[in-house]
Design brief:
about 600 residues; alpha/beta; 3 domains; 27 strands; about 25% strand
Amino acid sequence: MCGIVGYIGGKEKKELVLNALGELEYRGYDSAGIAVMKEGRIDAFKATGKLKNLQEKTKNFTSEGDGIAIGHTRWATHGKPTEINAHPHFGQHSYIVHNGIIENYREIKEMLTSKGVTFLSQTDTEVVVYLFEHNLQTSKSAFEAFEKTVLSLRGAYAILLITTIAPNSIFFAKNAAPLIIGKNDEKELFFGSSDAPLIGHAKEVCYLEDGQYGVLSKNEILLFADKKKVSSIFRDLPQDKSYAQKEGFRFFMEKEIYEQSRVLGETLMGRIKNNEIVLEELDEYLFDGINSIKICACGTSYHAGLAAGYIFERLAKIRTDVVIASEFRYKEPLLTPDTLFIVISQSGETADTLEALKIAKNAGLKTLAICNVDNSSIVRLADNTILTRAGIEKGVASTKAFATQVATLWLLSIFMAQKRNSVGKERLKSEIDTLLRIPSSLNVDNATHEKLRRLSKRYLHGHGFFFIGRDIFYPLALEGALKLKEISYLHAEGYPAGEMKHGPIALVDSKLFTVALLPKTMLYDKTKNNIEELSARDATILVISPEQFELADDFIKTKNSSHVMNEFFEMMIILQLLALEIAVRLGNDVDMPRNLAKSVTVE
């Protein structure tokens, strides 16, 4: 995700801000920039690619003495990762950096364009700085103009703004995106989007709450919410940088499991308006003449594609085939021009998936990439792209990438259902309402996590695991088995629950652990019967379900829900945490499992 830093003080600001941005590299970025104001003058620099490119651009620039500075590392959401789209963005006399997504930026942009404003970038951020300068014309102060601006924004934002109108101040605002204020005994003030860039500089920090905004100057911190002044509460800042990057979690994988609620919200942001799915990044005629879909991916992305296959056929009423990219490349596939070819990749550099995409392009198919990394090879090659907005994923075993891929594909299936009129309005409304509630349902329940931690000691020694589920829970069972394999090094297989009696049940005994997904909304009685068959053969069974299962050796209760996808995502988190805790018990390196790489760029 994007990173933000800010500084008020007398040290060399360029070096301080660049070093602070370096502490945020773990979040991922594709461009970076800084703006420094001293004695009423602002100097700004931007560069694409790695921070070293920005360092090279600023090598002859110095900024000692009292002043202010802001900096930003960008992970593209609106507009390609170009220098024009990089932050800071500027108006006539103001500069801004911003993390998040402004949902109503188009309406603001149209209003400002009608007033004669000309925009340079493709970003949503640029409209905020011009709106601020527009509001200055009718405001008594720069702060009043900033307050008007912030209160008119919808969406997620962490904003820092500097202006020559108020040359000693940094204006800030926070909503659904992290922003921290830091201070020390030398009367220096800092901003950061995480603790990491503040360690070694700030002594105390204030973690801003959603809806808070204000202004910092060397001698004053003014903090507001809903036009009312509020107190800023500071606490001591831990000085462990590794701990700060992990935000208090033991492992990056654990942190990424917990942040799925937030990144799912960012995945949906700006894509649902007036109870309709809006995918402005897609070509208007992408679906014309399309009668089938072929999804191609590897590993976890393949499992997301399998889940999407059920959803596309159910909602969009379109035939959907899902294939493993490494197999697709060599099977001499039959490709027809009425097929939309969808590839899924976290990194956008997955070698097998990239080669499959080339085959589809050469065959003349329309192509669409579901990807987390803008300007990656797959994104550049595909006709259209929907970015999943998961942010960088440091844990090798994918968690939030899978969640955002499934959510993005579900979003796309509803979008296609709208276009094809394949389901009724009530069904569409139900799907969208449920989709909007998914981020809140992904908040990890601490009691459930603690139960899984205690439970994990029972599942360390046996001769393997079966993960079973039906329908869309079969791909989830595959993903649960893969997570366990990747980080625990225990043998695990995912199966459709109804397939047990067709061979695999021969392996069942008390040392064969079965993790059974038993949702109430999908084939409950059928799956229950399959589990009972395993119980009769003395399998050790962990059941995950909203209803108690008497024959289970262990049971994890989930919430009652009326929609299958609520159950899907809740069970997904439980499987991720189960794999994590078993691996921790075994003493494994959860973030860097043996023999695996994060991005598979070779065949």
